[in-house]
Amino acid sequence: VIVMVLLRNFTEADRYTGVLLAAYAAFGALRLARYNVEDTQLERPQTVKRALPPLHFSGLPIPGACGAVVSTIILLVYVHREGGWIGMHWPWFLTMIIKALPFIMLLLGLLMVSRVPYVHLAKVFLTGRRPFAYLIAILVTTALVFLHPELTLFTAFQAYVGYGLVRSAVEYAFRRTKTAQEQLGGESTEH
After folding, report:
1. 10 Å Cβ neighbour count for 158?
2. Per residue in 90-138, pLDDT tens?
């Protein structure tokens, strides 16, 4: 309601953008509420208990969604400020991304309330014993963040968002293929 009152003096395009941004915030609130309710294994629905290992979140975590948005904005500011190859040769690309950002945020909001499994990075990468090569990988990643923070953070957050989607799509395809094979196997034994 407050968003609607604040947006009444804006243009129609600004109002639509405001609604998309408010939806992102609402999805974030719903994500947080669901996480708090499902945080304990005892309170999780049976379908969630079986489907998700303890090292996964159900839906895109809020820090992942916020990181994807903020890293995109940081990269856009950097490219606009520094010029760079994209800024000089494709200025329309920057404009397109800026105009698409509210829709990207809506998509991220929908991913927050989805059941797409996302890896709990802290539990996977920061617990237990790891080989020495693991330490080297962390140091190289840290160096990249310091050398090229705009591009490294953008790539990391977009990869995290994309990984969850691709992994979920691949698992869905395998489940459908397995189900189809089981149905074909069942039909051949009936004849």
Report:
1. 15
2. 677 777 888 888 899 999 999 999 989 888 877 777 777 778 888 888 8
| 8 A C-beta contact, residue 155 and residue 163 | no
Our CA angle for 181, 59, 152, nearest 5°, is 105
User: What is the Cα 62 distance to its own chain's centre?
Assistant: 8
Model confidence over 48-77: pLDDT tens digits?
Answer: 555 555 678 888 999 999 999 999 988 888
Which residue blocks in 8-148 are alpha helix, DSSP H?
12-38, 46-51, 62-82, 84-89, 91-113, 121-125, 132-147
123-144: b (≥16 Cβ within 10 Å) or e? eeeeeeeeeeeeeeeeeeeeee
Only one residue has tokens 């990075």, namely 121
State the residue for tokens 């990468």.
125
The rounded distance, in Å, linking the Cα atoms of 111 and 187 is 37
Please state the pTM of the whole predicted model. 0.74
Q: Which two tokens stand for residue 64?
A: 């992942």
Residue 6: partners with Cβ closer than 8 Å, 6 or more residues away: 18
DSSP single-letter state for residue 41? G
